[in-house]
Amino acid sequence: MNEPLIENPHFPILLVDDEVRTLQTYEMLLKKEGFNNVALLTSGQAAVDFFKEKKVSLIILDLGMRGISGQELLEKLSSGYPEVPIIVATAFNDVSIVVECMKKGAYDYLVKPIERTRFIITIRNALKLRALENENIRLQNSLLEGCVENLPLYQKIITDSESMFSIFRYVDSISVTSQPVLITGETGTGKELIAEAVHKASGRKGQFVSINVAGLDDTTFSDTLFGHRAGAYTGAHEARKGLVENASGGTLFLDEIGDLKDSSQVKLLRLMQENEYYTLGSDTPAKASARIVTASNKNLAEMKDNGTFRKDLYYRLNKHHIHLPPLRERTSDIAPLVNFFIEKSSKELGVSIPKVPDGLTELLREYSFPGNIRELEGIIFDAISSPPFGKIMLNYFQNYSTSSRANLSETFPDNQNLYSNIAKIEDAENMLIEKAMDVTGGNLTHAARKLGISRSTLYRKISRKN
């Protein structure tokens, strides 16, 4: 079973050997395994010059070269570029030479003729190690500096929330890897926008290709992802590429992964394990080089535990996990989102941008937004298109403030006893808060949700009361 492929790294795999036939053999083997970003050099001096002009992901170095020897080059490169793994590949099977090379900074030492499987595994492991080290460095830097490294990549995401900026920093840190990413969050929180940001931050040269897999039967799933050859089935008159091929060297985003049929889960698991797939109607496997990013509004960890989602697939998908908080937990985003959607809706409706009425943001912060950002966009559009057309009237939004509290009678069925000794509105509010905190075991987030207010508002009311 193959490990996840780190294919076509940003910088080339550099092969240095004065035997041209050996270089061609290495290159053919690497390309067969999906590594297409390869550079060939026949001398140590050429390698030194190459490093002055370009960056390198990995070096495979022969020791017995004319001119600058392999050992001299090893020492020079490992001291000057310690972040680059160097694999020594040579016919010298001498323990003392092995020890000397490892002391000088070699990642590994392979004796020619090199067994094919070991050759590929060693390269993959070296690339994975470098990716992990880079990821750790970037994560440490983002935490220490507290800033987003590539902020322009996130311009589609309207936010003023520190929780979202933390997610941006995490995306920056994992962009250097090819590992899968799982994005979770309620409907309408912007999971596809984050998936696009993951793709852009990665710098991958291929396309960002997305599909919602909910409702796809197994045959449609296979045909959509893997494509088919002409004549593969009745009606398949022409060959068609699948999305895996379209996303080659890029990112394949599978939305609503929690709704994927069990039989399709098996096929996706094989794709991720073996990094290859079969086009319908073909007996020859094709290599996959797309990074897999998935999203779900369901609790996949719970589904994994109760047997409704495959455990092995869950752990494959969950190499990196991003959870998007709902809008009610980042109410600082409501004001900039309202302004953004007012401008966007006005353009779509062909009207001048209306004035935002005083108190609108505060009123909306009291609403729970079960549909999150998507719901807010719909509310703003409807408000501008409702009479009086092109205006925003505060009374339009009163229903949303009321509806957020509509479930109180269900939450507190004993409300007749609850209100029996109330003298003031403030007393009623305090008793509702006490009841909500009691019902939820003191959990502020859950209590706020039941009361139809934001967590920060509930905290402020409790603090004022105390």
What are the main properties of this structure?
Rossmann fold; disordered N terminus; five-stranded parallel β-sheet; Helicase, Ruva Protein, domain 3; 466 residues; alpha/beta; 21 helices; 14 strands
Structure in words:
This protein is of the alpha/beta class and 466 residues long. It contains 21 helices and 14 strands. The strands form 4 sheets. The chain has a 5-stranded parallel β-sheet, sandwiched between helices. The chain has a 5-stranded parallel β-sheet with strand order 7-10-13-6-14. Helix 4 links the parallel strand 4 and strand 5. The longest helix has 30 residues. It starts with 12 loop residues before the first strand and ends with a helix.
Number of individual domains: 4
CATH class category label of the largest domain: Alpha Beta
SS field, number of helical segments: 21
Low-confidence stretches: 1-6, 406-411, 415-419
Helix content: 40-55%
* Rg, Å, rounded: 29 Å
Shape designation:
elongated
* Strand ordering within the main sheet: 2-1-3-4-5
- C-alpha end-to-end distance: 60 Å
Mean pLDDT: 85
Beta-strand segment tally = 14
- Give the class from helix and strand content and strand pairing: alpha/beta
CATH topology of the largest domain: Rossmann fold
- Which architecture of the largest domain per CATH? 3-Layer(aba) Sandwich
Largest sheet: 5 strands, parallel
Q: Strand content of the residues, in percent?
A: 5-15%
State the CATH superfamily name of the largest domain: P-loop containing nucleotide triphosphate hydrolases
